[in-house]
């Protein structure tokens, strides 16, 4: 069953407290299937013997240690920022019980990721105070955070009527900002840098921790894009040419912010990696996300980190404004 075949009522958006209290029959099987997958993926940070990487950390260069510290500076607060986006900007506006189940598991996963990064800070001799301050004091990092906060505020601090076209467009904007851009481009850019150490036989246990996080994030991305497409399919009036252009411009603007961030992440480069290399990968990611949303690629660049392909090939192609999503999955128990 696809979203096209799913019953039209109840619709996926709504704010009724007494609605969405029955799980069966499942209206959106893709959400139920993703919940099952997320539960099966459950893991805990201390299952990884991170202390075994201390010898690697001791022989890393100052630029390599800077890159690792910088990643922790960004990832740690932003995992919690995603939770705010989910709790205040998504969960209250979704009706379906199966979506609530998945979102609850995703919020737990974001908390688990935060604890995983705390585990890194506890294990390696990283200046925790400096790491915590960077997301506020480093302009390129603060700019990315301000971008995300701006969209979350539209959902939380301003009056939002989800029954209106403007309200539904704000809902989609928020999904694009936190799910497609933050999780689908910015996080994946950082994952590539983190996993690049393993390519040089460094921080192998740290890389295992990142592998588990990427596995979670691939489902987050899949759920978010499915949710965007379902909202557009059930409410085609919001998919105007102007709105499409705005969404595309959001993603293009996010690339420029990430380019500045990566120049601060690797000001001098490290063995086998520099800011230009990462930013080519960012443009490749942006093209992937644009294509997955039905837009034309903006950059036309090849993937410079083909070893990361497995982490990114999580979605089949979908179309933002024709909204037939071939990646929807069916749980046989939900039929």
TrEMBL record:
<protein>
    <recommendedName>
        <fullName>Ribonucleoside-diphosphate reductase subunit beta</fullName>
        <ecNumber>1.17.4.1</ecNumber>
    </recommendedName>
</protein>
<keyword id="KW-1133">Transmembrane helix</keyword>
<dbReference type="Pfam" id="PF00268">
    <property type="entry name" value="Ribonuc_red_sm"/>
</dbReference>
<dbReference type="InterPro" id="IPR000358">
    <property type="entry name" value="RNR_small_fam"/>
</dbReference>
<keyword id="KW-0472">Membrane</keyword>
<keyword id="KW-0215">Deoxyribonucleotide synthesis</keyword>
<keyword id="KW-0408">Iron</keyword>
<comment type="subunit">
    <text>Tetramer of two alpha and two beta subunits.</text>
</comment>
<dbReference type="InterPro" id="IPR009078">
    <property type="entry name" value="Ferritin-like_SF"/>
</dbReference>
<dbReference type="InterPro" id="IPR012348">
    <property type="entry name" value="RNR-like"/>
</dbReference>
<keyword id="KW-0479">Metal-binding</keyword>
<comment type="similarity">
    <text>Belongs to the ribonucleoside diphosphate reductase small chain family.</text>
</comment>
<keyword id="KW-0812">Transmembrane</keyword>
<comment type="function">
    <text>Provides the precursors necessary for DNA synthesis. Catalyzes the biosynthesis of deoxyribonucleotides from the corresponding ribonucleotides.</text>
</comment>
<feature type="transmembrane region" description="Helical">
    <location>
        <begin position="175"/>
        <end position="197"/>
    </location>
</feature>
<keyword id="KW-0560">Oxidoreductase</keyword>
<dbReference type="InterPro" id="IPR033909">
    <property type="entry name" value="RNR_small"/>
</dbReference>
